[in-house]
Amino acid sequence: MNEQGLRKVASDVSSEIKGYAVSGSSSFVVDDDEVVKQVECECCGLGEDCTQSYITKVEGYYGGKWVCGLCSEAVKERIRLAPNMALHDAFRLHRDFCQKFNNTTRLNPKLSLTYAMRDIAKRSAEKRNSSTKLARSTSCVPKIHL
């Protein structure tokens, strides 16, 4: 089996647009007033080509941090599931999740499976220990009275 390293994913459009880029720069002009730049997500680390106005809008919403569309939706979903959670807490939790994923699953899927199984076993043990145990007061074998 041929082992391949991690590769960065890029869309066909971004590769075509790079042909119009200003040499020596990671940004290029789409219209007369819109410059497109490559930005990296603070959570997952994936890069996207975005206009400066869009980058500013996203960074304004996330307190100066740029977040890709997928991570943005994940953060919004965390807030939807826990309405009392603050945006920065949801962002921090998702960023931690992404970092854990990048450090385990991407680098070593077998180790990630081991961690997942360990977490499942730990939760199962906690559930068994926390449930109240009822003492048996009578035998479960029915008596026959004649």
Characterise the protein shown here.
- 8% of the residues are buried.
- Helix content is 47%, strand content 10%.
- The protein has a three-stranded antiparallel beta sheet with strand order 1-2-3.
- It has five helices and three strands, in the order αβββαααα.
- The chain has a domain of 100 residues.
- The protein is mostly helical.
- The chain is elongated, with a radius of gyration of 25 Å.
Outline of the structure:
Helix content is 47%, strand content 10%. It has 146 residues and is mainly alpha-helical.
Question: What's the order of the H and E elements?
Answer: HEEEHHHH
- Proportion of beta-strand residues: 5-15%
| Overall 3D form | elongated
Structural class: mainly alpha
Main sheet makeup: 3 strands, antiparallel
Let me know the average pLDDT. Answer: 76
* Tally of helical segments: 5
